[in-house]
Each structure stands twice: as C-alpha cells, then as structure tokens.
What we know:
Structural class: mainly alpha
Largest sheet: none
Distance between the termini: 23 Å
Strand content: under 5%
Number of strands: 0
Low-confidence stretches: none
CATH class of the largest domain: Mainly Alpha
CATH superfamily of the largest domain: Alpha-helical ferredoxin
Bound molecules: iron/sulfur cluster
Helix content: 55-70%
Mean pLDDT: 87
Amino acid sequence: MEQVTEKKDTYTPKEISATRRIIGDRGEYFLRSVEGETMANISACYQCERCTNACPVSIYMNINPHQVIRYVQLGWREELLRSTTIWVCLSCEMCTTYCPNDVDVAKTVNHLRNMAFRSTVPPAEKVLAVFHETFVKELQRFGRVNEFWLVGSLNSHPDVLKEKIKTGALKEELFLGLELLKKGKLKLIPHRSKEMKKIRDICLKETRGTI
Ligand code: SF4
Ligand code: SF4
C-alpha cells in the first residue's frame, strides 16, 4: 500500500459537467439509491473536510473521505468503485464521529466496498480486497474471527502469498506468530460464537450473498 502524494481536491464546474454521469437526473439516481440503502444523509454534506482531517489513513487513499461523499452526490460511481479508498478504509468511524452534519461517511465507504464486490470492476488494492473477503468468510464460518485461521486462509491465496514473499512480510509474520504462540496469545482451535446465525444473517445482508 503506497502513500498517495498528489490528490486533486477541487474540480472546476466545467470539469464536473464533463465527467458527471448522466444517470436519471444528473447523477441524482445514484445519490438517492446510496442514500436510500445506507441512510447516510449524504445530501447534507457541505464539504468542510473534517472527515478527511480525522481519517488516520487518508494519505493512502487516492480519493479523500470528503471527496467520496462529493463523488456520490455527483453520481461518479466508476471513480468510486475504482478507488483505493474503499479498500484502504479501516472502518474506524472517525470520519462519521467528527462530521458536524451527521453524514455517515464510514457506512457510505463500506457500502461502496460491498458494491465493488458485486461489480465487475477490478479492485485497486487486490491484497486488501482479498483480506476483506477472507475476513467476512471467516466471520461467517465461526461467528467470530480467529487470527490463526484468518491469516492461514489469507495466505492460501496465491496472489497474497506471492506479495508477502516478495515484500518479506511472510517471514515477519512467521516470527510474530511464533512469539504470540509462545505467550499463549494465539489460539489454534477456533471457538464458535453462540450467535452464529445472527452474525451470518448480518454478513449475508451486508454483502447480499456475494461473499
Ligand atoms: S465532515 Fe461531514 S459535512 Fe464535512 S465534508 Fe465530511 S461528510 Fe461533509
Ligand atoms: S472509517 Fe475509513 S474513511 Fe472513515 S476515518 Fe476511518 S479509515 Fe477513514
């Protein structure tokens, strides 16, 4: 994951109208559908940028959180689904907490990530997309996430394994795993949650069965 140094913050009205997606009423359809599905109050955003200032990982995003909200308002679906932002986001909800207008930015980003899963758009951050998918699958399997099984499933993906060998992350992980094991912090046998059915239903609802 690389730091993004150059980002375009503002667009001229000419640039906006040249790239605006004409879906229904000037992108209005996309805005209304995302708002309807998330209840995220996106229309209320006045671009104060507090969400972006609060975001701990915005330097790794090619579209900042306040821009995500603006793009939804404009109906720029493709740009959003192709962004690194939807994969880099940690779902920490700092953006939502700091918004003075109650815009649920975190929920909007999560919604766009799930939308990207259902689309044919290739993810801008392949490894992070695999991580997201694996995480949800593990959650559905046991109703909670076991770190040992999560990392095992993740590393069984050829693209991830290749990347980790290339960057040396696999070696670091092995050492860290052994340390955790010695200290009894890594559980090899996963425990199933008593609320598995409820958790599976939530996962299915959020991803609409695509994962
Ligand atoms: S903090 Fe809220 S109002 Fe301000 S730019 Fe972000 S979403 Fe918009
Ligand atoms: S939820 Fe995502 S976009 Fe919002 S502050 Fe956290 S990392 Fe940034």
